[in-house]
Design brief:
CATH architecture of the largest domain: Alpha-Beta Barrel
Shape: globular
Number of strands: 12
Structural class: alpha/beta
Strand order of the largest sheet: 3-4-5-6-7-10-11-12
Mean pLDDT: 91
Largest sheet: 8 strands, parallel, barrel
Oligomer: single chain
Helix content: 25-40%
Length: 408
């Protein structure tokens, strides 16, 4: 845990948007209920490919309570015993509740995978119907699935059957693009087929991660369904989460990119929802100690070669925004060992304060661009269809999808 650098509390360490947002009042918000699970604060770590593996989930969990979901696991790869898929779906003692996000386009695959995972101790399953990656959508998966509500219904129902008493949630986007909005249909399907909650990333698939999330869609979905609604999009600071619940009435928040360089965001979220002011941002020396621990966990989990390779992107994220860090980040992009990483980080000033002004930076280069969403040929001509895309992935195509989901 990163401790505050001094006992004296300075003015709130926040960007201008959130300097005057009050923390939660006593009793203002309730715990998120997902079946038998009670989640307080009502905060969920978004499943992110190449990010929310066990080491990162562990870091986030150490900072604050909540629900921490694995990166997306392909049901077919899991059933076939793919080594990497099984590793990413795995856990370690003490990870409770254990949460996994499943991806699939075949109901029988999802039902069987859910049944096996629950038997292995998984306590929450999330279904990915929001991934906008072209290699996924052009095969009828991810955010393409809600375009066909009857197919989505079959997939949700099958997973709920396989999961038994374990809660199943779904995560969607608002639609394919502004002229093809699907989240109302998705809410109806999730509610009707027994999902415990629905998470809405308030952007279309065409937006990817650009522009501002439309929180009005979250409020509209909350008004349309009786199951819990989780809002996702533009939660960069803990006060954003409080504002989202206040303005939309949603039941919880899903935190994605906002925690990539700041896993201590979960400590701030816990404080804000408990009615306390969060601690000031850590200084660079404290962050360097966190980077070392993160690297050690990745090496233990993935091995010395793959662990350090994965750490390269984390080093760049953690050090972004600090003075004179450009050359250091360039060097960190090529590290091969832990001592090499630490030597490079040693070039920076450990007393430098965190660059709070950069917290809300959007890593998307052009926030105005809307991408064309790749769908299977003729997919929109039969939106009432309920059969999975045919033919299923050939081995080479599925391998490409696996790499895309791994962030490769």
């Amino acid at each position: 845990m990163i401790a505050p650098s001094s006992t004296a509390r300075p003015p709130r360490d926040a960007t201008a948007l959130n300097r005057d947002v009050p923390v939660a009042r006593p009793g203002e918000f309730r715990a998120l209920r997902l079946g038998a699970l009670r989640v307080w604060p009502p905060v969920v770590l978004a499943p992110m490919a190449g990010v929310t593996n066990h080491p990162f989930r562990t870091l986030c969990r150490e900072f604050g309570a909540g629900l921490y979901v694995s990166e997306m696991i392909t049901a077919r790869g899991f059933l076939e015993g793919n080594h990497l898929t099984r590793l990413l779906a795995s856990s370690r003692p003490g990870e409770r509740p254990r949460s996994v996000q499943l991806y699939g386009t075949n109901p029988s695959d999802l039902e069987e995978a859910a049944r096996i995972m629950v038997g292995e101790g998984v306590e929450h399953l999330d279904l990915n119907f929001g991934c906008p990656v072209p290699k996924v959508t052009r095969n009828g998966g991810g955010s393409a699935i809600p375009v066909r509500p009857r197919l989505m219904a079959r997939l949700v129902a099958a997973t709920v059957r396989g999961a038994g008493s374990v809660p199943v949630t779904v995560k969607v986007r608002t639609g394919i693009h502004d002229d093809l909005i699907t989240f109302f249909d998705s809410g109806r399907v999730a509610e009707g087929e027994g999902a415990a909650a629905i998470g809405l990333h308030a952007r279309t698939a065409a937006q990817l991660y650009a522009g501002e999330a439309d929180w009005r869609a979250i409020a509209a979905l909350k008004a349309a369904v009786s199951i819990p609604v989780l809002g996702n999009g533009d939660v960069w600071e803990c006060w954003d989460a409080v504002r989202m619940l206040r303005t939309t009435g949603c039941d919880g928040v899903i935190v994605g990119r906002g925690c990539l360089r700041r896993p201590w965001l979960f400590a701030e979220l816990a404080a804000a929802f408990d009615g306390r002011e969060p601690d000031p941002q850590p200084r660079l020396g404290q962050i360097t100690a966190l980077i070392r621990r993160h690297a050690e966990m990745l090496v233990e989990f993935f091995g010395p070669v793959n662990g350090i390779r994965q750490m390269r992107k984390w080093c760049i994220w953690y050090t972004t925004g600090f003075r004179r860090s450009a050359a250091v980040r360039a060097a960190l992009a090529g590290i091969d060992t832990l001592p090499e990483m630490l030597a490079i980080l040693g070039r920076l000033d450990p007393d430098e304060p965190f660059p709070t002004a950069t917290v809300r930076s959007n890593r998307v280069k052009d926030t105005r661009v809307q991408r064309r969403v790749m769908l299977p040929a003729g997919y929109l001509a039969n939106r009432d269809g309920d059969t999975p895309p045919s033919p299923p992935f050939d081995p080479r195509e599925r391998a490409a999808v696996e790499r895309a989901l791994d962030g490769g």
